[in-house]
Amino acid sequence: MTGQTTLKFRCPVCRKGVQREAEDFPFCSARCRIIDLGRWASEDYRIAGEPVSQSEQQPGDESY
Question: Is residue 57 part of a domain?
Fold first, then answer.
């Protein structure tokens, strides 16, 4: 053993192994990268936390 630890990465979409040097890292391909972007755009992913009420929003924050 050389004493080095090798990290293994998996694509978050299809779980296929991916190299850190890959062009689309952390995804295995452009296809998986676009699928992930679509999931964010369609609000399939959410950040955990309490919803922010209208009165708590800062001036200049617009909801779309």
Answer: no
Domain that holds residue 39: 9-44
HSE-up of residue 12 (Cα within 13 Å, Cβ side): 12
What total number of domains does the chain contain? Answer: 1
What 3-state DSSP class applies to 31? Answer: helix
Tell me, yes or no, whether 4 lies in a domain. no
Overall pTM surpassing 0.70 (yes/no): no
Contact residues for 25 (Cβ-Cβ < 8 A; gap 6+): 9, 18, 19
Cβ pair 26, 11 in contact under 8 A: yes
Read off φ and ψ for residue 40, nearest 5 degrees: -65, -45
Residue 20 lies in a domain: yes
Q: Is 61's pLDDT higher than 90?
A: no
